[in-house]
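Final report, closing paragraph on structural work. Over the funding period we assembled a curated collection of sequence-structure pairs, and we close with a single example.
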Amino acid sequence: MSDKPLIVFDIGNVLLRFSQERAGENFDRIEPGAGPVLVRALWETRLGLDLEKGRVAGPEFFRRAARPAGLAMGYAAFCAAFRDIFTPIPENLRLLIRLSKTHSTALLSNTSGIHWRYLLRTYPALQSARWPLASHLLKCMKPNPRIFKLLSKKQVLILRTWFTSMIAPNSFAPPNAWVSKPCATPAASP
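Its predicted structure, as stored:
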């Protein structure tokens, strides 16, 4: 067994910046007024959490969010708009590629099924991680301890796991380890 740590990367705002505002603008371009309704459903409701936890599939989420609001937008248009919310953080993607050559690496992201395959296909650097894990596949979200327990099965000792996230409760390193900020976090572009 290697004495190198398992290095785990979050995707959102670590490897790829994402924007709720951009999602709203995308939805409004398809159907004026749809942005606030769908952004709220995605990020401010139990239904949105259920989508990320894999408890509700994309089509069901869309039906339950769009129909009560009287939206005419189709599911394919919704998915295209919802997928177009990411901007790569190149220096962090390069870091993932570089570390993946010498360490075990993993992705652990609160990500819906609508995004997951799209992200892996669109951003090939993500494929360099040995273990790509997402909340919708694991049926739980960070910071739920169960998701970290599932991750620790990939590495015999959780004490050798380093997890990088922009959200403090989701980040951890071995006890008594000193960790400098490993990821660049450029300011969001205007």
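Residues 58 and 114 are 6 Å apart (CA to CA). The first helix runs from residue 20 to 30. We thank the funder for supporting this effort.
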